[in-house]
Specification:
Length: 207
């Protein structure tokens, strides 16, 4: 197998695979597939359905594989897309992957009941921890400030969700923070923008 197409998980983009080529350079050529409206395709119009995303990715796979052997890796939501891509290719009689890798997703023949992410109150601390891990250390040397910003963001997100029963964008006014230093204000802008985009996208993927 020469190529490994990689599909991102719920709410994320192909940027999650940035380090894979360096790790697997002696085994595969890594080609991340992007969901329209995210990451490298951020300026594109978002797709209206999972089927539309899978059909577009199936075309990309055929074009970029160009007769070479390949595999597909899908994580979480990306695992569902990977399965759909293979189903489309099989129905159209096109070249199927040599290997299909699915990680963190349910089997296609299982009935899946999706519980909205933010309604799982027992996992809310995990979500707070996850958000703080999204941001690389170079953004700030002050990890306390980073943790506080992420904590305040998640508190505001949960408060809005519990009141409205849907994910809403958080503004800096929602965070009720005391005056920040210049560098911390820039950090806050980045966190709020990134986190709003992630949870908005995750909500779309759940639907």
């Amino acid at each position: 197998m020469e190529i490994l197409f990689c599909i991102p998980g719920g709410g994320t983009s192909s940027l999650m695979y940035m380090g894979w080529q360096k790790l697997l350079k002696d085994e595969f050529t890594i080609i991340p597939l992007e969901i329209p409206g995210r990451g490298r395709l951020r300026e594109m119009e978002r797709a209206s359905s999972l089927e539309e995303i899978a059909e577009g990715m199936a075309r990309q796979v055929c074009e970029q594989a160009n007769g070479r052997s390949y595999g597909i890796f899908g994580y979480c939501y990306g695992g569902i897309l990977a399965y759909e891509i293979c189903r489309i290719l099989a129905e159209e009689g096109k070249c199927l992957p040599e290997d299909l890798y699915l990680c963190g997703t349910s089997a296609p023949f299982e009935e899946i009941s999706v519980t909205p992410l933010l309604s799982r109150k027992e996992h809310r601390q995990d979500l707070k921890d996850m958000l703080s891990r999204f941001f690389p250390a170079y953004l700030t040397a002050n990890t306390v400030v980073m943790e506080q910003l992420c904590e305040k963001y998640m508190e505001a997100l949960f408060q809005k969700y519990d009141a409205e029963k849907q994910i809403s964008d958080i503004t800096e006014e929602d965070l009720n923070l005391e005056k920040l230093e210049d560098g911390e204000e820039k950090l806050l802008d980045y966190i709020v923008s990134f986190a709003n985009d992630f949870f908005r996208s995750y909500s779309e993927d759940e639907a």
